[in-house]
Amino acid sequence: MFLAVIISSCGKDDDPTTPPPAQPVDMTKATIERTSDNSEFKESPETLPKQITSNTVLKTGKTYLLTDFTFVLNGATIKIEPGVTIKGSKSPNKGALIITRNGKIDAQGTAAAPIVFTSSQATPNSGDWGGIILLGNAPNNGAKDGIAGLQAIEGGVNETATGYGLHGGTKADDNSGILKYVRVEYPGIAFAVNDEINGVTFGSVGSGTTVDYVQVSHSGDDSFEWFGGTVNCKHLIAYRGTDDDFDTDNGFSGKIQFGLVLRDAAVADFGPSGASNGFESDNDADGTTKTPQTSATFSNITVVGPYANATPAATAAPYKRGAHIRRNSKISIFNSVFVGWPVGLFLDGALTEASATSNALEYKNNTIAGSPLVVAPGTATFNSLNWFSTAAFANKTLAAVADVKLTNTGYTTFDPTPAAGSPLLAGADFTSAKLGGGAFTTTTYVGAAAAGDTWFKGWTKFADK
């Protein structure tokens, strides 16, 4: 018989309800080493404690509650078995699961029995609870308290429990664990104005981490956001979120393949200065040249925007671009399709344009369909449409959403596979050096799915609220 283990101790001065780790840990150190002994698991109580400081398993067939910020600390691993449901609370506190820099997650669902994080509300809505936050020891380009490469993750985590929200270090191959066959529903609660938690947030997560088959649905902020780090991901789905789908910042350099986006034309970022984009990418908030520079590589992404299911007149005003690359980002996008966005692509700023000119930023073998403005105008010295149309880049434009011939773009009947006669059935190219090294699977098709593909079926949920 397993026993519940909850460790308590005297509180910290700034928050007496959130005690410090059972063992002293220097949370300002640039790199935190995890313990290697993660073999003895114990069963969790149904309501998760504020701290998990010893190896803990959540058992198949059970439902658990996140009633507050739950921190995984002290080298502990939280193991979540297939078929587990975890419900996050909205009030009085905001539920969220935070894997600190010296914690780990082992969440391996299956296609038949995914792990589901969802809202505890009887009638769920976007932004009902926090989300999943993974913090690691890989590099970023930020600085905190005079320490280069150290950051505090957004969402009020570090303000709630000082030190527990920090991320960053020098360990590029750091391992924060595994997320596989996981659904995250109705996350993205606001801790404060303009300080939200995303569906899944990565803070300096290293390439030793496995992220594969993860769906974020109805997020109140970004579906996926990376702050620095080197983690590679495959088979990501952003479904009917409000803000951005894939947001990359602070030197993120990972490789992402097979991503799906479906946007709800009536749901967007209605906050102050809200702008809803498929991709949004910055080097940092000030657009500096700090290193490591944001240089993530994406391939085989299908980004279905609001015009796929509504006319422009019936679409929420905050919708902007399929991809907004700005503030000196050097991300690259290959073999992908952007469908039904007001603007297909915006290269924003002279430094970003310079990276495009030098091929530090690449945008190749992509298709933009059904966008009234394919590419936003550049500065006086950069003709963005001419750059996009460079013959060697093999980018394509299609006048209408229907021209791309996806099988179904409906909210509850979504099937992104290319139908007969679709231009996406061929045209992919993997000759760029950025697509080498073994992280990418070579395809002949453009977009996230081949004809007849089913990787997005079974473990996912495409449904109204």
UniProtKB/TrEMBL annotation:
<protein>
    <recommendedName>
        <fullName>T9SS C-terminal target domain-containing protein</fullName>
    </recommendedName>
</protein>
<dbReference type="InterPro" id="IPR011050">
    <property type="entry name" value="Pectin_lyase_fold/virulence"/>
</dbReference>
